User: Fold these one by one.
Assistant:
Number 1:
Amino acid sequence: MPSISDSKCVLVVGSTAGIGRALALAMLDLPSQPTVIVCGRRKERLDELVASNNATGRLKSVTLDVLSERNTLKSSIEDIVNTYSDLDAVLFSSGIQRAFDFTKPETVDLDSIECELATNYTSIVRMITFFLPHLIKLGEQGRPTFLFTVSSGLSIVPSTGVANYCATKSAIHSLSISLAVQLKEKNVHVVEIIPPLVESELHDFEGTTQRLSNSWLSLEEYTKVTMEGLVRGDPYVPAGLAVDLHKQFEEGKLEAATKMHGHFKAMTQT
């Protein structure tokens, strides 16, 4: 089974903080010695990240706003592919989380909901679509390529206070299964990363960081467990409490989707 260990060049979207930043730095230590491209909209953070961690010279940076207008985003991704023709893996770690109380509908900010949906889901679909021509081309040349999505344990069992966030991650979860089945024949391997509650800046906006810090998985431990799964070539990589949730509710779903895909192809070809 191909794994991240086979990659020569990895782009991590949303790597200025949290899980994305930690995984990007961990990938520098892979035996294959890949080029790792950190990517986000905050250029000053990217510059600091590269300046502090580039002893090998293999850490690069690209400024990208995932909420750019569609054609602008497509042009930016084409520039990335043209600059890094060896790019064979993309990890999508950008995301935001907002709390909404639907028992008080007058307080629900629909602009904020739509921004969360665009950041966590729509922009990911766009970027995947724009990266795929390059990744499929490499795959058809016999080189394994990878898409790493980041959902959440909350995609399996939601936390009602962050209902829209959970819905966006459920969408990523479902999309990841479908793409994993569709793209396997193109030698493009889709791996879903499924974090539990992890030490992160994600919760700063709502002012819940201190309370949640009593129960989250440390970023160091999370990164270790997740990298082990990525190196093994697991088709999905849960960690912490998400392991039990996935086993209880999702066991066998990827295999079932594979069978359904086969049945659908058989029906449409007759």
Number 2:
Amino acid sequence: MRNMKIETEKGHEIVGRLILENITRGEWEPGAKLPSVVELSARFGVGRSTIREALSALKATGWLDIRHGGGTFVKKVLPSETAQGGASPFQEADSILELLEVRKILETGTSALAAERRTEEDLAKLSAILDRMNISLQSNDTAGGEQADVEFHAAIAEASRNSLLTQLMGSLAQRLGETIGKTRELWFYQQKSTSERLLDEHRSIYNAIAEGDAALASQLIRDHLNKVESTLRHLTEQ
């Protein structure tokens, strides 16, 4: 007889499922503002930290929009029922994994070449993007931070001075832009990490490229993407 691993749902997973059910059956319609964390805590009989974890998970998978100081809202455009399958809010992790695997193969190479071939102009561009990432962080501009993140990785490909690699990264731009927000949120949620830490990792990659250390630049990119991949694989195995 094959051994089976039986796991019970965690508190935030139960709450997340219940909130998702309320959304899908129309209690909270697209664009509607959810009750406060305090109100949800009382409604579901759990602590505020459990509510925040549930909301973060649903934000990560496209169901909610959490506005700093403005409350939590149901997304105006909801993920498709087909994509979600009516099950766990982490179902999209599978499709994101495929893109992430391609990124890991591609970007470890582009970062190594960038460290060997980058110009002062390339470094200035990367540095300017990091500055924008920092400004977005300080102003809680989530969209701006995500856009800067996409541009940072594209700029590394450009610095490789390999037109085919640049084109390959460009061909992924749309999908990368569509998923990077989700991968960032899932990483923050699972790793209990912060935007500051994510910015520091990008700065470390920049420094390795600036110092011409191809091996280190490649390894830092790999480590950076491995963390996200580890999170996604954990979610798909739940």
Number 3:
Amino acid sequence: MIEKRALQAVILIACLLPLVVGGQGIVHGPAPFGHLTDVPRDLDSHFRYISGIFFATGLGFLSCVPAVEAKGARFRLLGGLIVVGGLARGVSLIAVGVPSTGHILGLGMETIVVPLLMLWQAGFARRYLAGVTAPSSPAPTSALGR
């Protein structure tokens, strides 16, 4: 049970990033992220759309917390979306150059932390379900019970 609580706590903490940053992007657009005040409407629209998706992944991960051992498929789907986004961020790093520190930290979350969380969740679920479904051993008999 300790491992389950630890995994749940780490997921809750990790959910803060997409919820806070995605929420900021929805409400404020790209301005707070690059000190941009006059961006094209299409760029603003796209940025807010992507921020909404990011926010929604945070909600999705949050929905995995209560029964994390049973939410493997959802966890892998959400994690896969984040990893692909991180790989796209890596393409930008190669094509355009090194972004700000916040984006580098995001890249680390997306390509290192999330895959590690996916592995942890899968391993925990496997161990948890094996323990739940393992046949119970017969109760020990004592000499008096014979």
Number 4:
Amino acid sequence: MTLTLAAAGLSAGELRATIADVKPQQGKLWVALYDGADAYKAERRFAGQILEASGTEVTAVFAGLPAGRYGVAVFQDRNGDSVLTTNLLGMPREPYGFSGGATGSAFGPPAFDAFVLEVPDGGTVTTKVPLTE
């Protein structure tokens, strides 16, 4: 595959998201990578990972990405039910975060453009995703 991409003048990019403020040993981190605003609104991930909450910082690596715009959303599933637990008003009750430290408002999560990252052809992009509760 690498030879084919190199021959075509393309090489895959990489996105590294360091998730900060993790509550160690409390459940798993659900990491979603979105490749556009429409996919984000539809909750249709481009890629995803489930990682152990092994320390206060955990890094998710998405390799082999075509150049483009991506956004990372994370939540820490402390109760093990595989969904972001919310209260009666829809406010998260588990830690969550977005690439670049983007935050939502009382009316909901941030728009895709607030946490989008540009992955260049053959380049690596890093971002910090601080969790908040």
